[in-house]
Specification:
Layout: E1 2-7, H1 17-23, E2 27-32
Parallel strand pairs: 1-2
Length: about 50
């Protein structure tokens, strides 16, 4: 699995969740919106917030 994480400010990073995801074999990428990172094509990611 591959998750994208949207980070809005530097002090609100994924923290301990990075370790939890890694332990479950989930790769992550953090998009730092506050730093001007562009949102990538989301079709290559697995997590979907919609039910």
């Amino acid at each position: 699995m591959h998750f994208v994480i949207f980070q809005h400010i530097a002090c609100e990073h994924p923290g301990v969740f990075r370790r939890f995801f890694a332990e479950d074999g989930i790769a992550t990428i953090a998009i730092e919106l506050n730093e001007g990172d562009r949102i990538p094509d989301l079709s290559s990611f697995d997590a979907d917030p919609a039910p």
